[in-house]
Amino acid sequence: MQNSFSPHIFSRFQPLKNTLVYDCFSNGQNGWMALMPNFTQAPDFDTRKSVVTKDQWPPVMLSSATYRYPGTHGALSGNYSLKISTRPIAGRYEDIPVPGSMGHAIKRMTFHNPNRKRLQFEMWFSYTAEQDRVRGDEDLAGLSENAIRAFGAGFDIQERGNRYFSGIRYLNSINGDITKKWQYISASEVTDNQWAFGTDGDWCKRGVDPQWYGQRYADGSHDGFKDLPNGSQQLCYNETDCKINWIYFRFLIDTQKREYVEFQAQDRVFDMEGIPITLIDPYKRIDGLLNPLIWVENDANRTVFLYVDSVLISQD
Amino acid sequence: MRQFNAAPLELKKQFKESFQTHPFEAGWASEAIFFIMVEDVSGSNSQLLAEVEISHDGFNWAYEGSVVGPIYEKGLNFIKVSCFGNWLRLNCKIEGDNPGFKLLVQLALKE
Known about the structure:
CATH class of chain B: Mainly Beta
Helix content of chain A: under 10%
Radius of gyration of chain A: 19 Å
Structural class of chain B: mainly beta
Number of strands of chain A: 19
Distance between the termini of chain A: 32 Å
CATH architecture of chain A: Sandwich
CATH topology of chain B: Jelly Rolls
Structural class of chain A: mainly beta
Number of helices of chain A: 1
Largest interface: A-B, 30 and 25 residues
CATH architecture of chain B: Sandwich
Oligomer: heterodimer
Number of domains of chain A: 1
Shape of chain A: globular
CATH class of chain A: Mainly Beta
Shape of chain B: globular
Distance between the termini of chain B: 9 Å
Largest sheet of chain A: 9 strands, antiparallel
Order of helices and strands of chain A: EEEEEEEEEEEEHEEEEEEE
Number of strands of chain B: 7
CATH topology of chain A: Jelly Rolls
Largest sheet of chain B: 7 strands, antiparallel
Number of helices of chain B: 0
């Protein structure tokens, strides 16, 4: 596998002063892996019971984006991207995410700068649905854009006295109806029980893991996300599911103020100055945790894919 | 230094019927080993046969020729594969009287 690192690649990113991560997936998987439950229970490293089944999110992989008709699409920086996929099974939007209906990648690190302020996530990505079947005989029956419900990226952080999640998702389709708007992570004023879909004793607290926790409602609202003001955007989704275009994504938070600052997708910049981040009491053992997250969710019984060419995480 | 990655295809999951593992792109690697850890077996006359399949698009699949099994008991099993192009999966066939296999399936890739 060739080394695709080159300083000129940074010209398509906008890093802050200190680059923490530059992962180009033509160089390898760089520590990104599927998220899975904690194997901590008796008798044989079993998992704690949870209302959300997390051991069916598929493995992430290095993809050449190879399809039936065009063959290999490749990536932006080389031949390989990190692919996050679902299994071909979905529930309705307002239901608890069913096992396998999401895919999720995570990288695990910790903070190192005691004077840290801003933190930024950038990536070049693309997304598509599997060309597995044609719906009928109407025009464009073989185009399945509305099989992709949502995808997003964010941070799971615990530092200076709080755990908190920040991030942005693109809500592409709700039960088959194209929506195409951005939402940011922000928890509604609900109880831990409500956050875990009416379950007492689920290990998760309100605000943690909004990728799959938090009640969803048929109009697209969500107890874990809020609509980004003026956040409708028609991302570039090509005319057939086997043509993928690489898209720029960037969001910036202030870890001192605990606020969002800015978000960018393609060439559009959204001001998020002053939007608060939901703060949670710290969990045991994980002070300093800095975990970048990327996920995708399907909206039909079809596999959907999120490809990430490269990720740059920086701070100042 | 050589590249290596082990991907968890199934995690301690209880299977009672035949199944196929999640389609996996492995084009960057020249060596592959499917590890099949059988953590538990239930039912009677239960047996598991795992066949390697390859694909040009990740949706249509053909039998590659490598197979392991039949497997009857707990323990670690594996299949080595090379010359597979890009897409790989296992077609796992389960038979028996009320059969059950608790499996951990891992795909180890090396270049």
